[in-house]
């Protein structure tokens, strides 16, 4: 695995942990009594720390390390959680996000401010442990007390044992010295009895330990066996063993009774058990694949489907039954492959939704508004390419809702509304589409105001503006350069407008709908295709040419009479059961000559009714060929890129190329 | 049996299980191991998963992370030792986990490594344990 692959994997997984931290912290802010949330955060910070340290991202490791310490103190109830701590933790997450986003320059990241903040909140309840004994212990030759000597004597009498002074030197780089020493002592315990250690067992347990440990050890084994066994422990740089002469020690010993020390390491760890959380999803084994690879796979599946259609067609032409069975199973297989590949590209919408609660929280605090924000349908899946594109539009819509939609608490109370505004983001599946609905109970969009602004901006004359229906007036919000905001704030009303949102969604083959009642709120509905790679389309003939119209855009088809066509302000319309339907003749738009043969009789015209920005438009065509799933080949070469009206092309079963109409830019 | 064989003949090839909640960390260890001719037979993302996979794959050695969701490594260690008292488990720890690692050692862990992992240390620990 190359370094850059490691880096990609690190970033992807680190972001997941960050998201979890954000999510859990938000929950914690709502309800700080749930200690399991602290545990989840502790674990996520800890895991992140390990990952960052492995990659050498020391700044991230340092921040997460301090976060982990803080979480640990909260968990052990040394510090009470409060809003300051939560804010500092949010700041930490921002810092980490920044670091992960700019991972190449991670080492230059300035974390002194955030560490200081963390330090401030943790020191509000300084821990009392470890303060009492902070004396460094220098290991010297062993000084045996009377009890120790008695113990040695009795041990030597029992068996054919001798006493040794074992000196173990740990590697300079050894990090967990207590644990390492524990391993050494465990090895020794297997071979004999540890009588005494310098530093003492208590010092070892509390981490008060240098690189050198002296051990008085009674064993029946010979020196070489002891050295060999201890050398097998990792991170040991040197082992020295010398026999101890008890008589010599006894002679020099001034007796002074001291309590003996325990000969086995005692467990000092506190229980780290966590209550099991059923909500935690069991990790699924997975492989990360670049979206590029999936795109290639998708393309190949597309080619496969085209060839399959060709085969089907050939079989019909050859009038052979022999191929039927094989073709049927090929049909099934290609369909299965297609479904699998499509599924592999699907990602839960939660990946986009999960950062919104945090954003809405920050915005509402900033603007002193009270907002209860709910998301729903986070488990709905969308094609990765669609998902990647909807983040920005959604951010814009949410900001608009918080900024212009929902009122301040005072204003709401004055209007007899609940103090807390509600903002709901809901995703749902509707056949081959995903519907995203953003609903607020704020001011709503006032058509009267919209008309005024339109006039002020010079988009319309007064009379023209008054001609607009309320619905049309509200939809003005999607016009380029139109902003109904009376004052421009930092958050929205500047830069990208609603027209950018609409363009983006329509580029993806989706549509935007708006519904608003003054003082009751606004609902914006985004209809998105599940995927951009394959679409259901209606194949139509215009003249001799075949075109594909995406089913998403189609409302219904109609047969109208030529005589019923009226002209209003130079535009063709037809009155259909009371609805005035504007008409667009595709022959004119696409410059295709009329083919008289296709008229069943000269008076009847075929019309495909499509929807554009909530409005119905009739497209005049010559013939409906039927519904078909087509694979979009994008027109991304230089020549065709900027041609409006087409979203791509597809290859039909007979090998012919059909252009896919892009309704929003076509009419 | 399997362990004896490896000890007796050649330490080159060992069946390893890696337990860590971060796929990234699993990848790091796996890379070190496979580059040195070892065989990663199982990977698990939490303690519960680890116990199941241990039963299935009977690895020669387990690299076991400590802080994980669902079941901590220290508890998983106890269960694994109950299943197989000769299990060889190496704890994957970080700075600041002294006491937990000590507890794990008392509960039968063979050794430990400290994040960030250093390839030579990982291999040294492996050779010492097997």
**Share of β-strand residues of chain A:** 15-25%
State the largest interface: A-B, 51 and 45 residues
Structural class of chain B: alpha/beta
Cα-to-Cα separation, first versus last residue of chain A:
51 Å
Radius of gyration of chain B: 13 Å
- Spatial order of the strands forming the largest sheet of chain A: 14-18-19-17-16-15
Low-pLDDT runs of chain B: 1-10
CATH superfamily of the largest domain in chain A: Histidine kinase-like ATPase, C-terminal domain
- The structural domain count of chain B equals 1
Q: Alpha-carbon distance between the termini of chain B?
A: 12 Å
Which descriptors would you attach to this protein?
heterodimer; A: 667 residues; alpha+beta; Four Helix Bundle (Hemerythrin (Met), subunit A); Alpha-Beta Plaits; Helix Hairpins; 6-stranded mixed β-sheet; 5-stranded mixed β-sheet; 42% helix; elongated; B: 130 residues; alpha/beta; Rossmann fold; 5-stranded parallel β-sheet; 5 strands
Helices and strands in order:
The complex is a heterodimer of chains A (667) and B (130).
Chain A (H helix, E strand, L loop, with lengths): L2 H28 L4 H21 L2 H18 L7 H19 L10 H12 L22 H13 L3 E9 L6 H15 E7 L2 H5 L6 E8 L3 H9 L4 E8 L2 H7 L38 H28 L5 H21 L1 E3 L1 H4 L2 H11 L4 E6 L4 E3 H22 L3 H6 L6 E10 L2 E8 L6 H10 L5 H6 L2 H6 L22 H10 L3 E7 L3 E9 L4 E9 L2 E6 L3 E8 L3 E4 L2 E6 L2 E7 H4 L14 E9 L2 E7 L1 E9 L14 E6 L5 E5 L1 H4 L1
Parallel strand pairs in A: 6-8, 13-22, 17-19
Antiparallel strand pairs in A: 1-3, 1-4, 2-3, 5-7, 8-9, 9-11, 10-11, 12-13, 12-20, 14-18, 15-16, 16-17, 18-19, 21-22
Helix pairs in contact in A: 1-2, 1-4, 2-3, 3-4, 3-5, 4-5, 11-12, 14-15, 15-20
Chain B lengths: L1 H7 L6 E5 L3 H13 L3 E6 L2 H11 L3 E5 L7 H11 L5 E5 L4 H9 L4 E4 L4 H11 L1
Parallel strand pairs in B: 1-2, 1-3, 3-4, 4-5
Helix pairs in contact in B: 3-4
């Amino acid at each position: 695995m190359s370094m850059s692959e490691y880096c990609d994997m690190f970033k992807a997984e680190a972001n997941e942990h960050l998201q979890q931290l954000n999510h859990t912290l938000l929950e914690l802010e709502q309800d700080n009594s749930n200690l399991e949330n602290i545990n989840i955060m502790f674990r996520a910070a800890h895991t992140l720390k390990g990952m960052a340290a492995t990659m050498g991202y020391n700044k991230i490791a340092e921040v997460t390390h301090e976060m982990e310490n803080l979480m640990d103190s909260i968990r052990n109830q040394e510090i009470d959680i409060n809003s300051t701590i939560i804010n500092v933790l949010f700041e930490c997450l921002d810092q980490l996000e920044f670091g992960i986003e700019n991972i190449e320059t991670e080492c230059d990241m300035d974390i002194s401010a955030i560490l200081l903040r963390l330090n401030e909140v943790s020191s509000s309840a300084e821990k009392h442990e470890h303060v009492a004994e902070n004396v460094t212990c220098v290991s010297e030759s062993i000084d045996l007390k009377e009890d120790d000597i008695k113990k040695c004597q009795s041990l030597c009498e029992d068996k054919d044992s001798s006493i040794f002074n074992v000196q173990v030197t740990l590697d300079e780089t050894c990090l967990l010295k207590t644990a390492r020493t524990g391993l050494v002592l465990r090895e020794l315990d297997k071979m004999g009895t540890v009588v005494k250690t310098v530093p003492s067992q208590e010092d070892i347990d509390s981490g008060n330990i240098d690189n050198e440990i002296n051990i008085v050890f009674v064993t029946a084994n010979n020196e070489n066996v002891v050295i060999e066994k201890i050398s097998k422990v990792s991170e040991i740089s040197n082992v020295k063993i010398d026999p101890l002469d008890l008589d010599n020690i006894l002679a020099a010993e001034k007796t002074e009774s001291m309590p003996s020390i325990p000969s086995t390491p005692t467990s000092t760890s506190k229980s780290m058990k966590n209550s099991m959380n059923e909500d935690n999803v069991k990790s699924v084994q997975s492989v990360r694949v670049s979206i590029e690879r999936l795109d290639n796979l998708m393309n190949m599946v597309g080619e496969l489907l085209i060839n399959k259609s060709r085969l089907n067609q050939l079989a019909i032409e050859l009038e052979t039954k022999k191929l039927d069975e094989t073709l049927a199973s090929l049909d099934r297989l290609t369909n299965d492959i297609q479904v699998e590949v499509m599924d592999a590209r699907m990602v839960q919408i939660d990946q986009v939704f999960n950062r919104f609660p945090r954003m809405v929280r920050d915005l509402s605090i900033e603007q002193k508004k009270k907002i209860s924000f709910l998301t729903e349908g986070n488990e709905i899946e969308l094609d990765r390419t669609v998902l990647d594109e909807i983040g920005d539009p959604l951010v814009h819509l949410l900001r608009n809702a918080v900024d212009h939609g929902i009122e301040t608490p005072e204003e709401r109370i004055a209007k007899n509304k609940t103090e807390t505004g509600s903002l709901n983001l809901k995703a749902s599946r509707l056949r081959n589409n995903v519907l995203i609905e953003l609903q607020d109970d704020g001011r709503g969009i006032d058509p009267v105001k919209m008309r005024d602004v339109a006039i002020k901006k010079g988009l319309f004359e007064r009379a023209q503006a008054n001609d607009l229906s309320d619905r049309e007036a509200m939809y003005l919000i999607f016009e380029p350069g139109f902003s109904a905001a009376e004052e421009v704030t930092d958050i929205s009303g500047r830069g990208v407008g609603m027209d950018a949102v609409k363009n983006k969604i329509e580029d993806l083959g989706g549509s935007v709908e708006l519904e608003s009642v003054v003082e009751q709120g606004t609902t914006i509905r985004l209809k998105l295709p599940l995927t951009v790679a394959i679409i259901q389309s209606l194949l139509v003939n215009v003249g001799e040419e075949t075109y594909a119209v995406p089913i998403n855009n189609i409302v219904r088809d109609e047969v109208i009479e030529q005589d019923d066509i009226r002209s209003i302000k130079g535009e063709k319309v037809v009155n259909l059961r009371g609805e005035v339907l504007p008409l667009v003749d595709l022959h004119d738009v696409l410059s295709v000559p009329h083919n008289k043969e296709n008229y069943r009789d000269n008076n009847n015209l075929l019309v495909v009714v499509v929807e554009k920005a909530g409005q119905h438009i009739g497209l005049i065509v010559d013939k409906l060929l039927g519904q078909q799933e087509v694979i979009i080949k994008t027109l991304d070469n230089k020549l065709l890129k900027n041609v409006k009206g087409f979203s791509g092309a597809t290859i039909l079963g007979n090998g012919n190329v059909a252009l896919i109409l892009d309704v929003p830019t076509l009419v | 049996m399997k362990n004896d064989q490896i000890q007796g003949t050649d330490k080159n090839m060992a069946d390893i299980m890696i337990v860590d909640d971060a796929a990234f960390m699993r990848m790091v260890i796996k890379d070190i191991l496979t580059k040195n001719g070892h065989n990663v037979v199982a990977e698990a993302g939490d303690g519960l998963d680890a116990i199941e996979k241990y039963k299935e794959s009977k690895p020669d050695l387990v690299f076991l992370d400590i802080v994980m969701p669902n079941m901590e490594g220290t508890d998983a260690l106890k269960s694994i030792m109950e299943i197989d008292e000769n299990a060889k488990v190496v704890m994957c720890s970080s700075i600041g986990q002294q006491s937990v690692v000590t507890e794990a050692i008392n509960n039968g862990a063979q050794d430990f490594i400290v994040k960030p992992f250093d390839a030579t240390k990982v291999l040294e620990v492996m050779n010492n344990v097997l």
